[in-house]
Amino acid sequence: MLILILGLLWGVFGSSEKKEFIAGGSCAQLFLACIVGPVYVWIRWLLAPFNGRGLGKKVALKWIPFWTLAANVLPACIMAALATLKKVVKTKKLDAAATRFQYELPGCLSTVSTFIAEFHAMRQSKYVWRSYAYAAITLLISFVLGTLLVPVWTKGYN
Questions:
Q1: Per-residue pLDDT tens digits for 37-68
Q2: Element (H, E) at 71
Q3: Are 87 and 150 a contacting pair, CB within 8 Å?
Q4: Helices (DSSP H) in the chain: which residue ranges?
Q5: Which residues pair with 55 in a beta bridge?
Q6: DSSP 8-state symbol, 148
Q7: Whole-model pTM?
């Protein structure tokens, strides 16, 4: 029933908002994000059980929730790349498409609430340092990939 309702909403959206959507209207962008967002939220929810499995055969670093880390860092990089691309290319169609995409996938896939919940849970354990290490890893990777590498990809700096 929910899939039928979602299909109906997509149909209504497609027919009534076509001109505003192509022109990059913010109302159409927000409406599309609300329609497509739950799909990405479900993807994020389905990734959560894979946390705590560690790396490799020896299950190293089992305490790091790698899937939450990936679900937060990857969208941050995508958003930074799109923001940089919009500055470099400067066309109305690219701006509208990039803005729509920024609202949809990265905004719904990344979750500050899950990050904070995991940080808090780590702080409550006997290894408090892990919470700060996890926060530092998340912020450092996001910073390095989002602000240092993305301009290199889009502008070709040597």
A1: 777 777 777 887 888 887 777 778 888 888 88
A2: helix 66-89
A3: no
A4: 2-16, 18-23, 26-47, 66-89, 92-109, 112-124, 129-143, 150-155
A5: 60
A6: I
A7: 0.69
Residue at 104: amino acid letter: E
Tell me the angle at which helices 129-143 and 112-124 cross, rounded to the nearest 10 degrees.
150
Dist. CA 37–CA 33, nearest whole Å: 5
Distance of alpha carbon 67 from the chain centroid:
12
In the block, which residue shows the tokens 């909403």?
9
Percent of all residues in the chain with a pLDDT value above 70, rounded to a whole number: 78
Q: Can you say whether residue 56 is alpha, beta or left, with left for phi > 0 and alpha for psi between -120 and 50 degrees? A: left
**pLDDT tens figures, 112-156:** 778 888 899 999 999 999 999 999 999 899 888 877 766 666 555
Q: Are 111 and 42 in contact (CB under 8 A)?
A: no
Residue corresponding to tokens 């009534």 = 16
Phi and psi torsions of 104, nearest 5°: -80, -90
